[in-house]
Amino acid sequence: ILNVEQSPQSLHVQEGDSTNFTCSFPSSNFYALHWYRWETAKSPEALFVMTLNGDEKKKGRISATLNTKEGYSYLYIKGSQPEDSATYLCALLTGTASKLTFGTGTRLQVTL
Amino acid sequence: NAGVMQNPRHLVRRRGQEARLRCSPMKGHSHVYWYRQLPEEGLKFMVYLQKENIIDESGMPKERFSAEFPKEGPSILRIQQVVRGDSAAYFCASSPRDREDTQYFGPGTRLTVL
After folding, report:
1. How far apart are CA A91 and CA A25, in angstroms?
2. What is chain B's mean pLDDT, rounded?
C-alpha cells in the first residue's frame, strides 16, 4: 500500500505570514505528483502537476518544489491571505494506472 | 468551458435501495475517475474509465458497485442495495489524457443512507 504523508496536519497563521508544508512519499516507483487546493463545500482545485526531480512551479504567491530522490515535495505560500484558507492535498501517480493516491492533507487557516 | 458536473449533489437513500450517481466530464475529456471520501478519511480511488472501457477498478468494492462510461452520455456510478457504510462523498474527475495530465474534479455527490 502506497503511503503518502502530509505534515503538518493543520496550520494556523496570521495574514501576511509565509508558510510551507510537506508531502512525503516512497521515492521509488514515482511517476507524477499533484497538488490540490480544497475549500470546504467546493471541488478540489488543481494547483500543480510535477514530474521531474528538481521541478519548481509557481502560481502567483504559491510555489512548489519536488525532490524525487529523497521522496518529498514542499508547497510554499508567500504572504498568506484569508482566502488561502483551505485544505492542501498532495497526490501521487504511480505505476501503469492513472489513479491518484492522496495524502490526508494540510488544513490551513489564515486569520487577520 | 464548463467544469466537471455531478448530479445529484445530495442523495438520500434507505438501506436496500439503489443509488445512481452521474458525472459529466469536461468537454474534450475522455478519461473519467471516481473517488470516494468516507467520513473522517481522505480521498480514495475507486475506478478509472475511458469511453466504453473500464481501465482500472482496483479500488471498487467487489460487490454491489459498478461503473460505466458509455459512448454517449455521462459516466454512472451505481450502488445496488446500499448499506449505511456506503454513506460518503463521491467525487468524479476527468482529464483529456492520462498520466501527466491534471485531473479536474467535480463538486461531488454526498450520499446518505438512512
Report:
1. 9
2. 93
